[in-house]
Write a structure and sequence with these properties.
- The protein is mainly α and about 375 residues long.
- The chain folds into three domains: about 120 residues, Conserved hypothetical protein from pyrococcus furiosus pfu- 392566-001, ParB domain (Alpha-Beta Complex), CATH 3.90.1530; about 140 residues, no CATH class; about 100 residues, no CATH class.
- It is about 50% helix and about 5% strand.
- The chain has a four-stranded mixed beta sheet with strand order 1-4-2-3.
- Strand 2 and strand 3 form a beta hairpin.
- Helix 7 packs across helix 8 and helix 8 packs across helix 10.
Length: about 375
């Protein structure tokens, strides 16, 4: 993940004390909060390791915590006995030109982390788009090109969505949808309370589209509709009924672990991590193609690049080969050895099943794929 050029790491012998670090609510809220169970697990891991593996990043001139809010929270809530058993968190100071620079650095840093849930990532990508779009407009008013991160090649100034899409491996249309989602989350958090942000990003009960719909309602109607969507409110009056008013009946954005009989819906959920790899692969391929242009590009001549791209292609083909595409026809989704107890088949095995059916029944098999 590229680092914002407005942020420069500076070594300094004047390291602030842990008790002097300030917490900025806006910066803290950009970092996905941990659930109680996740926070407990983080604490246990730190105590087991005997140290905090990653340093806290602090805005040097302001003394404000930029990265490591969850780790800092764990440290502040340890007992004196527990603190004596481990090393205190390390502090790394980093200078930024202004709050906007900090804002974008945090988002870029969070997007690049593997443990960010899809809804949280969508929120962060949307926040980055809204921030960069504002910057682009400001620069274009002055007749300049918008600011870019290292490695970016901007051909059309102001094409914010395309620039971010290339960086994170998504389509420009998805970037704009995520921007609307981020605006909706912030609007609902502002109107209904800050806890709503964590619920929307972690509870998995309200889809992104539904969150946008609720945020578009008049402010005095949002709370009742939000509570219904979360399964805590009363259904709306009248003869009409929509399932999400009782909560938990909308399609989720996150993968789910299937229980019982696997359906096409579950197969689509199984595909989510595979699809995420395909998105990341787009960004990886672009980064690989830029290797010869870097300072050490002489090490990546034509022959070396052919070898690298061959390995890349083999990797992607292998992952795609493992992607489940259809409910297993041998067990009808009830999980068997043919489908490795997943209830789903990949493309090759589904084709073999169809051919087997044709051979034994003399009919044209039909398998609906969840692609």
């Amino acid at each position: 993940m590229s680092v914002n050029p407005r942020a420069n790491v500076e070594a300094s012998s004047s390291i602030p004390r842990l008790d002097s670090i300030q917490i900025d609510a806006e910066f803290r809220d950009l970092c996905p909060a941990l659930s109680f169970e996740e926070s407990t697990q983080l604490r246990d891991n730190i105590l087991s390791d005997g140290e905090f593996r990653e340093p806290l990043i602090v805005w040097k001139s302001q003394g404000i915590l930029v990265d490591g809010h969850n780790r800092f929270h764990v440290w502040r809530n340890l007992t004196d006995e527990q603190r004596q058993r481990i090393a205190a968190p390390r502090i790394r100071q980093q200078e930024f030109s202004d709050r906007d620079a900090v804002h974008d650095w945090i988002i870029n840093n969070q997007i690049g982390r593997r443990n960010v849930a899809p809804s949280q990532r969508a929120y962060l990508v949307g926040k980055l788009y809204n921030s960069q779009k504002k910057n682009d407009k400001d620069f274009l008013k002055r007749g300049d090109s918008p600011p870019s991160l290292p490695g970016d090649q901007i051909e059309h100034p102001g094409k914010t969505a395309g620039r971010i899409a290339d960086r994170v491996g998504m389509s420009p249309a998805q970037i704009r949808r995520d921007a609307k989602y981020a605006e909706a989350v912030d609007k609902l958090a502002a109107n209904l309370g800050p806890s709503v942000r964590d619920e929307l990003l972690n509870a998995k009960k309200i889809s992104k589209d539904r969150a946008v719909e609720i945020a578009a309602l008049p402010a005095d109607q949002q709370k009742a509709e939000y509570e219904r969507a979360m399964g805590r409110g009363e259904p709306s009056g009248g003869t009409s009924f929509t399932p999400y008013e009782w909560g938990g009946m909308e399609p989720t954005d996150e993968p789910v672990v299937p229980h019982g009989v696997v359906t096409e819906y579950h197969v689509k959920e199984m595909q989510t991590p595979f699809n995420e790899v395909q998105k990341q692969a787009t960004a990886l391929k672009k980064a690989i193609q830029e290797l010869p242009n870097g300072p050490g590009g002489a090490w990546c001549g034509p022959n070396a690049m052919n070898d690298i791209m061959t390995c890349y292609t083999n990797l992607i083909n292998t992952i795609n080969h493992r992607k489940p595409v259809v409910v297993c026809g041998h067990c009808n989704g009830q999980k068997c050895d043919k489908c490795y107890q997943t209830g789903a088949l990949n493309k090759d095995l589904s084709q073999l099943f169809i051919e087997g059916q044709n051979a034994t029944q003399g009919t044209t098999g039909s398998v609906r794929q969840a692609v």
